């Protein structure tokens, strides 16, 4: 919702242009962002909205590349304010505010009135999303080559959904822009979430709105400095994979989960009836038995989780803690539902399933933090028993601003206000930045997070299908049902290339699996760049001093051998 006017080079490749724009706006890790050209035929409602709300049309003029100070009176960036970076860990040596001053891009935009939001809202099918995703500019060509003219409007967006080294001390703009992107994707239902999750996001937005209106300008220079020796030790601990006194234990013990859980396999025309079994989770495999006593014998079935999709099936209010597994089989995906008894059990099993789907076991150092993240996410969803009935008049902002228009039709304003205030009691003590970070983490926990859709046609197939691209996998999706058919992980990818003559992307995976497809909704370069970009981002490490290996990026995304 902020329009920034910038002078950039028309002849420089888009990758360089984005780096310069991010430098001007003070956004670290510019490789995660890119420029998106909105389609001409989809967002008609957005144009209507823009005409009617001149307050949001305020343009921030930053003519910084010509050395001028722009229309803001105090430029956001000047060549004398370049941060110095710590050579050890690549983070800026001084806090953002010390070399950056007050920045209009660090404060969140106020929520739109419900009527304005309703004008912007339009139900997007996966096909609509594919049309929007076709608009990413080619990073290896210039703006001029891609027909972008003067005064054209492009959207600066986080394109790659793996956010490296998010640090509130240095990333005030980056965190706010991420929060905004997450918030709009939820309000406009570009990503699906349950009603319970929508209310949790609404309470966080309300909290952030309230804090933004009441907070003094943030000054990160007062944050306590981390002791260098402590930081080095904790880095060493991460490198070694957990607490030092646990290392031997982790090597000798292969962690195992064993619990009594319920299982259900969907069959046609069958009711969902769960049956109790004794489950054992070891390495990346779940085995289940009739009961605990028979666990020493042969299992009824083994579920191999490597390469599967793990989807939460949770309703905290109804005390339902389910995990939906989509397991790869020869002709697509097989569905299995597992039901846990409580939050703690669910957090352990869901974390183990998520790691196993990536081919990692519970011995992996991130297992404990994954369990904690799931628990804190569930905690935010659970409505704490109100200490007192929420005062509905205490909410000065219309509750309908914080949820997607679909929910304003379903509930009266008073009902929404009461539910948002109840959910708000869980997070009322969070600081502004903590709340934004919590919102971003909760967004990352959604099942559809970071999946970008494209219409493709697989080699040998006569019909169009959807391809979902995420930060760690490719998903083949049935266009009529919207359900995943097969998943391929980047970790198992051996090589990929493009046949430019027939515009076809070909990918080879482990175990002699090969796929090839042509792109229907966009040029095949867009998909090729997405895959290469994610591979490039996976090569980053903290000791790189934030220098970008542009040559490697173009090598991985350019499509030339």
UniProtKB/TrEMBL annotation:
CDD domains linked: FERM_B-lobe, FERM_C_fermitin, PH_fermitin
Pfam family, one: FERM_M
Annotated transmembrane regions: none
Assigned keywords, A-Z: Cell adhesion
InterPro entries: Band_41_domain, FERM_2, FERM_central, Kindlin/fermitin, PH-like_dom_sf, PH_domain, PH_Kindlin/fermitin
Keyword Nucleotide-binding applies: no
Domain spans labelled PH: 256-358
Membership in a protein family: Belongs to the kindlin family.
Protein name as annotated: Fermitin family homolog 1 isoform X2
Recorded name of the encoding gene: LOC106608053
